[in-house]
Amino acid sequence: MIEQPGTITVKTVSLDSAYVAITCAALLYAVSWVLGCSAAPSHNSGGGKKLASHEPNHHPDEEKTLTAISGRRLTVEKMALRAATSLQFSNEEYGVAFDAPKGYVLKEGELPSMDRGLGYLGPIPMHFAEPGGIRLATVEPPQGLHLGTNFVNEFFTVSAHYGSAEAVCADFNIPAETRGAPLTRTVDGIDFYGFAEYSAASMHEYNGIYLHAFTNETCYEIGYGVATAGSSPSTTSAANAADLKHISAENQLHKLERILENVHISPPDFERNTAD
Q: What pLDDT is attached to residue 244?
């Protein structure tokens, strides 16, 4: 074909081919950029073997330190909680101190007339042979303990009789028919002597232990016991036997006896002042 002078030749370019070329170039660039980022060296001291993570990195030594601090803090918190919830009784006038079980009720001085006591068997007793004893403190469980059982009440009580004679202190006003076998217990290095006692009436039973010791011109009395409602076949109706779970008075007495380990007896405050 002979071109005429002054004539412009126009070549038609396919838009589809250009679009494909541009798209391929863009894809190649994107792939190159991604591969370049993934191959970039890590700033990790571990030689770049690990990809970056959003979780904080802890060295083994740091983890051990954190664990130790956490465990120690928990121990301190538990000790603080135990101290806050413990019941500590102290009477400097008679030199008596002890720790009561957590969750129980500590009552200082004489008990109110509305105290649960021994149920139908009467109030919690003192067993000094002569009048003049003073109740220092009594520990009893909270209301609602042992629901669904024949449990009525339990107690741990401490009393003192200043000016009593040693021979009189060795005696108890416990009736002979309710006395059990004689007992000996050592409390804070002092030997206490006493008896187990038992009584039953009005569908109630009571098992207790009372102890006396003479020191610091004072007769000290420690008593603890458990009252139950019809805890034996002779005092339990068939209906009650089916509805109530029977607790073991013996087991409860053993638990109360653990308080003896925390009882401390020292010279009374007035005796120390006199000595000075």
A: 83
Highest mean pLDDT among 10-14, 195-199, 228-232: 195-199
| Helix segments in 4-160, DSSP class H | 15-38, 60-85
Amino acid symbol at 205: E
The model's pTM: 0.65
pLDDT of 160 strictly over 80: yes
Look up residue 117 and give its two tokens: 């006591």
CA distance 96 to 34: 81
Please tell me the predicted confidence (pLDDT) of residue 52. Answer: 44
Q: Burial, 196: exposed, middle or buried (Cβ in 10 Å; 0-12, 13-18, 19+)?
A: middle
In which residue are the tokens 């541009």 written?
22
Cα–Cα dist 134/248, whole Å: 31
Band of the pLDDT at 76, cuts 50, 70, 90? low
Size of the chain, expressed as the number of residues it contains: 276
Integer CA distances (angstroms), 90 to 5, 84, 127, in order: 128, 16, 22
Beta pairing class for 151-162 and 190-201: unpaired
**How many other CB atoms sit within 10 Å of the CB of residue 55?**
5
Hey, what are 126's tokens? 């003192």
- What's the CA dihedral at 178, 181, 187, 190 to 10 degrees? 110
